[in-house]
Amino acid sequence: MTEMHWLAAGQISAAYAARRLSPVELIQGLLERVSSQNPQLNAFIKVDAEAALDAARVAEKEILAGRT
After folding, report:
1. In Å, how far are 23, 31, 34 from 43, measured between CA atoms?
2. CA–CA separation, 35 vs 41, rounded Å?
3. DSSP letter string, 11-61
4. 4 in Cβ contact with 30 (< 8 Å)
5. What single-letter DSSP state applies at residue 66?
6. pTM for this model (two decimals)
7. In this structure, which long-range contacts are made by residues 53-57, counting pairs with CB atoms below 8 Å and at least 24 apart in sequence?
8. Nearest to 68 by CA among 26, 20, 12
9. Mean pLDDT per 10-residue segment, the chain (68 residues)
10. How high is the pLDDT of residue 68?
């Protein structure tokens, strides 16, 4: 699979449907990318990782329940 930060919305949706990727995995990967790149880029003032992970967990439950 392409590196997560390069995936388009359609690719993410297809990966979710095929169970090759979960919202939690995606957010964890993106948070790792932000953490590794932001010291050089200074693109983010504040990253609310817990809120992002909480939202991803809710989305993952919805997907597993068949609600996309």
Report:
1. 23, 13, 9
2. 10
3. HHHHHHHTTS--HHHHHHHHHHHHHHHHHHH---S---HHHHHHHHHHHHH
4. yes
5. T
6. 0.91
7. 53/24, 53/27, 53/28, 55/23, 55/27, 56/22, 56/23, 56/24, 56/26, 56/27, 57/23, 57/24
8. 12
9. 91 96 98 97 97 98 92
10. 80
